DNA sequence: ATGACTTGACGATACGTCTCGTATCGTCAT
DNA sequence: ATGACGATACGAGACGTATCGTCAAGTCAT
């Protein structure tokens, strides 16, 4: 009955190609013009196979952008304004090409649908990174103990997301400096 | 050849019913489950007639929420923290039921798509209102002349939009107070 | 004034298209 | 022999278009 395990295994190379194709198409076309058929065509992976690995379109898109959207590290120069500006600058550069995808992924989450948690999850590391920067500044006395760390981190995240993703505006260095200086 | 103008006029009552139905369905179902057919059914206006008045779904949704989402006035108590908190509180209450619709509308506006719902346009009056509050404070000397008005207004807007629409979180009074106080 | 006429907005309905997601089947490497 | 893969057909839902008959609102002739 239970023969050990024979037959072919799933092909990780196909998965890699599918994710690469999804990420490419995403920056080229934007979320809503990326279709499962186009991903299949570009990657050479059959559409059916895509659905064998990911339950729906939101899932494969999320997987495709997760790596690219993760912060690489948290700067620690000893100056909160420098660190914050550096990190926010990195965030802007990273999400700008995917702004459309991010907001659309969020959109797919409407009313208890799954997918929203994905966006929050993807941006969470950036929020955490900003919190770390602020808490280090608190620890070394650069900020007071009752400084509103979480609110400030949310405001910074919100500023970037609002302008880049919602308003689709560029953010100048001057703006960014004013943002992290105005405390 | 050119007879002045005869025949029936467009029915503003039908338009009113269509917009009301769209707004209702939006809060009940969220953007992506509102269909033109459902709006037609609920309002008693034929789908074809909807397309005679609005070019696409985004347009009718935008029209439907524009009024509800507009700020009624700009508070002016003489205290920038009070005014800002009041106004941001009003913004939160207004967009919370439409959070889903807003983010979806934003999604539709990306990549020069035609089905573009003008989210930026709808939120602009709120931004302007915050700018007014800050400039009044500057005028009466409560804020310095080089205070970054626009950046602050964007950060406040971003904070609300990010938490309410993206993360779908509630915002406490404490958070709001910390936001407008931390300057 | 009155009654026939013309215009065009509306409702109903059938389509065409696109895309998601499912079902089925033969092939072929392990 | 197993089962992952590619190819293909298919069903469902939604957007947006096309077409047609109806009917009310004005217009014009008498």
From TrEMBL, chains A, B:
InterPro entries named among the record's database cross-references: Homeodomain-like_sf, HTH-type_TetR-like_transc_reg, HTH_TetR, Tet_transcr_reg_TetR-rel_C_sf, TetR_C
Matches recorded under Gene3D superfamilies: Homeodomain-like, Tetracycline Repressor, domain 2
Coiled coil ranges: none
Keywords linked to the UniProt accession: DNA-binding, Transcription, Transcription regulation
DNA bind region: 35-54
Domain HTH tetR-type: 12-72
Signal peptide (from-to): none
PROSITE patterns in alphabetical order: HTH_TETR_2
Matches recorded under Pfam families: TetR_C_11, TetR_N
Protein name (Swiss-Prot/TrEMBL): TetR family transcriptional regulator
Annotated source species: Winogradskya humida
